[in-house]
């Protein structure tokens, strides 16, 4: 557990539509900085990629953000709110060891999990990005909550949930719209300070 956990102040937000999720992503992008690690978790259909699309739009990335499931990671270029170049690495950890869906893992030791994960990331060329991000680099990881502590001491953990009645259409299939409950959990002083400032602006109506 990082020292930032002791002072964390979670934010809980409701997003009634898919576009609301993208708007939330744009708002998060507006306070992002180089070196950031953001971890998204939630069940299939919760809206992880939809939120990622909003973050991408907020950063003005050069390509549409889509699920990188089959490529594990994609590199996208954009700009931070201050105009500096941003290099967004979007990772889908669904098939990586220690991911939210790693049902076969019996390793509960964070160091063991980290070693297994870094071995896999090294094969993908992503280990150095997490250990020492390059200039302007930020990392967005879907399905990564189970490995969050092994990835970065300072991070923003985002958990998305959907009420069952909100997630299903009349035919029982998942719908794009429908309320999502989004919890933002900052770990580390930087994210705590940024979310506190954001919360204060919301309260003041700015």
Automatic annotation (TrEMBL):
**Where is it mostly found?**
cytoplasm
GO cellular component terms, A-Z: cytoplasm
SUPFAM superfamilies tied to this protein: P-loop containing nucleoside triphosphate hydrolases (SSF52540)
Q: Which GO terms describe its biological process?
A: tRNA threonylcarbamoyladenosine modification
Gene Ontology MF term list: ATP binding; hydrolase activity; metal ion binding
Give the keywords, sorted.
ATP-binding, Cytoplasm, Hydrolase, Magnesium, Metal-binding, Nucleotide-binding, tRNA processing
- InterPro entries xref list: P-loop_NTPase (IPR027417), T6A_TsaE (IPR003442)
State the family named in the UniProt similarity comment for this chain. Belongs to the TsaE family.
Protein name in the entry: tRNA threonylcarbamoyladenosine biosynthesis protein TsaE
């Amino acid at each position: 557990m990082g020292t930032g956990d002791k002072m964390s102040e979670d934010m809980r937000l409701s997003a009634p539509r898919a576009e609301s999720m993208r708007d939330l992503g744009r708002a998060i992008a507006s306070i992002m900085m180089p070196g950031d690690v953001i971890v998204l978790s939630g069940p299939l259909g919760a809206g992880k990629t939809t939120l990622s699309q909003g973050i991408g739009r907020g950063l003005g990335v050069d390509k549409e953000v889509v699920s990188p499931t089959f490529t594990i990671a994609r590199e996208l270029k954009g700009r931070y709110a201050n105009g500096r170049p941003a290099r967004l690495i979007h990772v889908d950890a669904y098939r990586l060891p220690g991911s939210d869906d790693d049902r076969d893992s019996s390793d509960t030791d964070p160091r063991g999990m980290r070693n297994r994960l870094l071995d896999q990331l090294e094969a993908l060329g992503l280990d150095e990005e997490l250990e020492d991000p390059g200039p302007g680099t930020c990392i967005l990881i879907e399905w990564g909550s189970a490995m969050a502590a092994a990835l970065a001491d300072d991070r923003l953990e985002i958990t998305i949930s959907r009420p069952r009645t909100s997630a299903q259409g009349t035919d029982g299939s998942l719908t794009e719209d429908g309320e999502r409950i989004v919890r933002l959990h900052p770990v580390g002083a930087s994210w705590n300070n940024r979310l506190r400032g954001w919360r204060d602006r919301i309260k003041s109506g700015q």
